[in-house]
């Protein structure tokens, strides 16, 4: 009886399983037959029920089938975020259950291809590249040339979107003459190639046959009347294509509006934009601004609102449209998990910010209303260091809730993401197997999916809105520090200088011409080698004073403490080495360097300046000194540097072979001050240890909270520069890893002078615990040291080190100077008084007699 009962249960289970699989397929096919909102809602309800009952791999495969068709419908109906989530679910199930071994289901056509395109559409470029490369690999492995070339087309479009036109030309050239390419695919690749040639300014582009190529040639020749005529013919053809989505049609209308805008036909441009909005927002009336709650993750909205902003008659209307673009951009950004993706997208954000600042500056000039200045300053702030701000906020959140398992998991995943990204970049530079790169791309995608799921949960539990600060908060902090904030915005056409003082705020601008750009570049390149300045001291003096005036730094000459937020090329300018007056002297110690009169503390954003960070009470120093003896990279004076530090600080020094990569990673969290005296490179950004190098992505993956990081190595502040994010340097890596206070170098520095500067620095730091004070004082000590010859006092030798971080009030030495000074003054007064009395007494006696 028991055996019969068990047999019944087994048979019943099998039947139920088969029924569930069949139910999923039937539900999906019913939806495919009549795809609409009502049938979608019905499918979603059944999907939830099915998911709670899934047990077998066959059922999982049926669910993947359902999800892929649901994702396709959502994509076609402009629900891009929901489509991405659906496809990601399908891909995750397909991989987790190893369904490729169960069935020949075409995961490329049904899921990977549309998912990769969706990532591109929504600006998630890292996931797009990873996903497309995954299915190109799978297609090559299965010798499916159609999918392989389709992947190349989509990858070319992606690279074109992010401006990598040289790569596009190389890829399209390789595949256009491919033996197994279809006519349609070849035509697409030719069109992509032509667009990239136009973007790169190629003059000899072969004229192709057909309207698409005629349009491209008209744009290239700036014959916009002709371009509009050809485009409208293309538009008519496209609108009759029933297979095109509303999104694709909306993009056509935006392109038409752009042509009308160029031809100064703003009314027609507005009509085309309204028509595009109506396609994307069926409930949009066309008589007013769309409601924010109706907008969704669709970058076509950004194109629409940006263009609307350009044709508005007044400042406020333009800003309103730009703010809608920023809002949609933030919706898209919520779906990006990769730092690289965020950095790439920051470029467009900064360009839009410049347009807003231009409008507000003009409004200020017209009205003299200072509220416009602070609003422009906020646009400037919001355009910079977004990824550093992101990780800073997440670390602050984790510090507040150190036992939250979700926050811990999120941070671990972020570190894994950076680690795998670093490995992937290393593999791409080598000659490794495609399978290794495929596996890394796959791992990167899996981590991204996990981060997205966590973000959805955490966003409901915690608020991670971008922190903002008021004018009052900033002024209060500046009053407390007796400081002034100078923030630059380096745009495409204009350099803005925002100055926020405790009592007022003002703005100035410099038009960026080829002449002004050259003045900035020439000054930076004076520090390319030690001989340049010494060979023509007067040239340096002229350049240093010219740049001082150009950057309007005289505007803050009355302030002792400067909080400096540089931007663009100004990230590479050592402001301390500028001259505040004209100078004819060849004696460097007598030159009116800014460092002599002002203390400069740099920062990546004013937000970091006003943000309170829990200080690390640990003051013990970890020093890393590989030395590299008996090699052509020996750092002879690094040993002197180590001895000077040991004399001044409680420290643990890793010398020679002990200065290994693993030792540093293990011991870094145990110390409050990290000092690395070694070699470093700017491109790619790496820092060397005795047994190897730490790459930028590996540094990103560290978890640090030191009081201070000192990077006593070459070019630690130099790297590939991105708009709005600054240089991807070793120093930025440590900032991302959790170091708020970092002292680093802007060029290749001399071994001997570095050891002397560092000796002076730690002599003061051990007494004051103030990095900014010690950094400035070390430079002054170096200039005043009579044992150092004039040639070695060139700013090349002492100006490289800049300090980014908090303005820390000196603990002892600063007050001690005042005490000693006060005592000396009192003694002088007493001596003068006694002398006066003695002299006065003698004179009186003489008169009496």
Give a description of the structure.
The chain is α/β, with parallel strands linked by helices and 849 residues long. The strands form four sheets. It has a six-stranded mixed sheet, with helices on both faces. It has a five-stranded mixed sheet with strand order 3-2-1-4-5. Strands 9-10-11 form a three-stranded antiparallel sheet. The N and C termini lie far apart (145 Å). Residues 557-806 form the CHAT domain. This is CHAT domain-containing protein. InterPro entries: CHAT_dom (IPR024983), TPR-like_helical_dom_sf (IPR011990). It comes from Hyunsoonleella rubra.
SSE arrangement:
Blueprint: H1 2-33, H2 37-51, H3 57-76, H4 80-96, H5 107-121, H6 125-141, H7 145-161, H8 165-176, H9 183-199, H10 211-220, H11 224-239, H12 246-262, H13 266-280, H14 299-310, H15 315-333, H16 339-367, H17 371-382, H18 386-400, H19 405-429, H20 434-461, H21 471-481, E1 483-490, E2 494-500, E3 505-511, H22 514-525, H23 530-535, H24 537-550, E4 561-565, H25 594-597, E5 599-602, H26 606-610, E6 621-625, H27 638-648, E7 651-655, H28 661-667, E8 673-677, E9 680-681, E10 686-689, E11 692-695, H29 696-700, E12 708-712, E13 720-722, E14 726-728, H30 730-737, E15 742-745, H31 751-768, H32 771-784, H33 795-798, E16 801-804, H34 813-848
Parallel strand pairs: 1-4, 4-5, 6-7, 6-8, 8-12, 12-15
Antiparallel strand pairs: 1-2, 2-3, 9-10, 10-11, 13-14, 15-16
Domain CHAT: 557-806
Protein name: CHAT domain-containing protein
Transmembrane segments: 816-834
């Amino acid at each position: 009886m028991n055996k019969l009962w068990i047999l019944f249960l087994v048979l019943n289970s099998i039947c139920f399983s088969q029924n569930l699989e069949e139910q999923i397929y039937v539900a999906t096919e019913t939806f495919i037959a009549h795809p609409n909102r009502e049938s979608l809602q019905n499918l979603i309800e059944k999907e939830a029920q099915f998911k709670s009952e899934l047990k077998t791999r066959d059922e999982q495969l049926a669910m993947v089938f359902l999800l892929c068709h649901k994702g396709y419908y959502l994509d076609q109906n402009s629900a891009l975020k929901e489509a991405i989530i659906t496809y990601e679910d399908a891909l995750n199930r397909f991989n987790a259950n190893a369904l490729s071994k169960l069935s020949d289901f075409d995961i490329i056509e049904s899921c990977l291809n549309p998912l990769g395109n969706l990532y591109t559409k929504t600006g998630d470029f890292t996931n797009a590249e990873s996903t497309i490369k995954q299915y190109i690999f799978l297609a090559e492995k299965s010798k499916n040339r159609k999918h392989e070339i389709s992947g190349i087309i989509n990858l070319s479009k992606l690279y074109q979107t992010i401006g990598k036109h040289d790569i596009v030309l190389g890829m399209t050239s390789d595949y256009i003459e491919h033996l197994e390419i279809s006519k349609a695919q070849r035509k697409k690749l030719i069109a992509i190639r032509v667009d990239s040639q136009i973007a790169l300014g190629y003059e000899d582009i072969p004229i192709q046959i057909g309207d698409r190529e005629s349009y491209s040639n008209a744009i290239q020749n700036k014959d916009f009347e002709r371009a509009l005529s050809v485009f409208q013919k293309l538009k008519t053809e496209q609108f009759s294509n029933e297979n095109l989505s509303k999104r694709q049609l909306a993009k056509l209308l935006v392109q038409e509006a752009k042509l009308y805008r160029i031809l100064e036909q703003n009314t027609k441009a507005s009509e085309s934009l309204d028509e595009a909005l109506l396609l994307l927002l069926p409930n949009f009336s066309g008589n007013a601004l769309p409601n924010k709650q109706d907008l969704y993750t669709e970058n076509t909205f950004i194109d629409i609102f940006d263009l609307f902003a350009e044709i508005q008659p007044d400042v406020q209307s333009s800003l309103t449209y730009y703010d809608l673009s920023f809002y949609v951009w933030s919706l898209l950004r919520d779906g990006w998990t990769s730092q690289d993706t965020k950095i790439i997208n920051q470029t467009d954000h900064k360009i839009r910010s410049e347009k807003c600042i231009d409008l507000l500056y003009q409004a200020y000039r017209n009205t003299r209303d200072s509220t416009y200045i602070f609003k422009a300053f906020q646009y400037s702030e919001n355009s910079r260091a977004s990824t550093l701000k992101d990780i800073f906020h997440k670390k602050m959140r984790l510090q507040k809730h150190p036992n939250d398992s979700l926050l811990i998991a999120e941070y671990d995943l972020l570190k894994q993401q950076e680690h795998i990204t670093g490995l992937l970049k290393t593999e791409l530079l080598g000659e490794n197997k495609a399978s290794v790169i495929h596996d890394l791309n796959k791992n990167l995608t899996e981590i991204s999916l996990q981060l997205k799921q966590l973000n959805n949960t955490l966003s409901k539990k915690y608020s991670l809105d971008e922190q903002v600060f008021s004018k009052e908060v900033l002024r209060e902090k500046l009053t407390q520090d007796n400081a002034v904030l100078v923030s630059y915005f380096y745009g495409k056409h204009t350099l803005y200088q925002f100055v926020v003082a405790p009592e007022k705020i003002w703005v100035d601008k410099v038009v960026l011409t080829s002449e002004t750009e050259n003045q900035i570049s020439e000054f930076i390149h004076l520090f390319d080698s030690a001989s340049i300045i010494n060979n023509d001291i007067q040239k340096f003096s002229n350049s240093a004073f010219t740049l001082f005036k150009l950057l309007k730094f005289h505007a803050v000459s009355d302030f002792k403490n400067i909080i400096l937020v540089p931007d663009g090329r100004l990230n590479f300018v050592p402001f301390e080495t500028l001259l505040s007056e004209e100078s004819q002297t060849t004696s460097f110690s007598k030159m009116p360097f800014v460092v002599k009169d002002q203390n400069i503390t740099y920062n990546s954003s004013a937000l970091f300046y006003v943000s309170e960070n829990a200080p690390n009470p640990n003051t013990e120093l970890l020093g890393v000194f590989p030395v590299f003896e008996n090699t052509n990279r020996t750092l002879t004076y690094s040993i002197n540097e180590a001895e000077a530090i040991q004399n001044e600080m409680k420290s643990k020094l890793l010398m020679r072979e002990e200065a290994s990569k693993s030792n540093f990673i293990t011991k870094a969290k145990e110390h409050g001050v990290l000092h690395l005296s070694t070699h470093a490179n700017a491109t790619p950004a790496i820092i060397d240890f005795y047994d190897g190098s730490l790459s930028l992505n590996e540094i990103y993956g560290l978890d640090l909270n030191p009081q201070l990081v000192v990077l006593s190595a070459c070019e630690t502040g130099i790297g590939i520069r991105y708009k709005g994010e600054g240089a991807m340097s070793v120093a930025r890596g440590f900032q991302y890893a959790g170091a708020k206070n970092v002292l680093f170098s802007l060029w290749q520095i001399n071994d001997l002078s570095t050891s002397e500067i560092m000796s002076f620095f730690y002599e003061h730091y051990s007494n004051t615990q103030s990095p900014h004070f010690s950094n400035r004082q070390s430079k002054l000590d170096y200039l005043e040291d009579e044992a150092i010859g004039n040639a070695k006092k060139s700013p090349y030798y002492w100006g490289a080190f800049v300090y980014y971080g908090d303005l820390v009030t000196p603990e002892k030495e600063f007050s001690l100077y005042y005490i000693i000074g006060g005592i000396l003054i009192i003694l002088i007064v007493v001596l003068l008084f006694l002398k006066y009395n003695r002299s006065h007494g003698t004179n009186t006696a003489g008169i009496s007699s």
